[in-house]
Amino acid sequence: MRKRATAREVADAAGVSKWTVIRAFTPGASIAEESKRKVLEAAAALNYTPNLLARSLATNSTHQVAVFVDDFANPQKLPFLETLTERLQAEGLVAVLININTHFDHVHALLHADQRQVDAVILFGTAFRSETLNDLQFGRGTPPMFVLARDSQIEGVPAVTCDAELALREIVDHLFERGYRRPGFMTGATVLSTALRRRQHFVDFWGEKGVDDVAVFSAEKYSAEAGAEAVRGYLKETDPADRVDVLMCENDILALGAMDEIRDRFGLRVPEDMAVVGFDNYELCGSSAYSLTTYEQPRDEMVEVIVGIITGRLEPETVTLPGTLVVRNST
Fold this sequence. Notes:
InterPro entries: HTH_LacI, LacI/GalR-like_sensor, Lambda_DNA-bd_dom_sf, Peripla_BP_I. By secondary structure, this protein is an alpha/beta fold. The chain has 13 helices and twelve strands. It has helices at about 5-15, 20-25, 35-45, 50-60, 75-90, 105-115, 130-135, 165-175, 190-195, 200-210, 225-235, 250-265, 300-310; strands at about 65-70, 95-100, 120-125, 145-150, 160, 185, 215-220, 245-250, 275, 295, 320, 325. The strands form three sheets. A six-stranded parallel β-sheet has the order 2-1-3-4-5-11, with helices on both faces. The protein has a four-stranded parallel β-sheet with strand order 7-6-8-9, sandwiched between helices.
């Protein structure tokens, strides 16, 4: 590999000190215009760029933010990641994406992130078990953690999330006004869905309206295939007269898979025979093939807040933001 030019070589070529070279590439640093011109000309001739890794040793900041994701099957993750990485980069930060899976769990990922000296960690997924993370005794100097798009169940770790209580109240009010009285709820994997709190709010708000019998069943994971399989099992096992008249799914991907199964395999009409509701407002929800009623999270605002916390402009505290109910033909 070709050897990189060093700050010392640029300094010699420009006839200045090494520290003048460093100041020339440090935003806001005090340096004479003529000295800066000489440095930049010499740097261009030598194809020199600053070594950010070396600079991080002096500044105690790597300008890297680790983002942990564990449910890539959910395509709604992509718009969030696009917005998040764009805002981080606008702040001069770089996102380090870490895939949480059976071979690389959260504990390994956190230790890995700590060793790389990232400035912060964003937990962006569903399978973050508080009892596991709380066992890690991170001390002084370890990166702060934040949760994005779900509740934090980890003491001392703030979250930026959509207001699930407000969202589910609006959804249940809408369904009740439309005349539905036999509600059902499909979760993702039961052990993972508790942090979203959508199922509990859904059940509680129906109870306030005098409807205590809410059918609840689970998909194995957050995917269209899992949603189809879960509703298939429910419809096969349930007498038509006892079936729900509206099915709320924990996210849109489950809802889209459920709708395909309800209509294509069982020949039922949506919403006449069974209404369906999702959560997230994924792009396909608005297509004529689905026209799915759903709830849109305030993605841009949530990202803006978490980036503000990471950069120090905002206090590190849990923030819940209101979303928007999007009513379409599926209800």
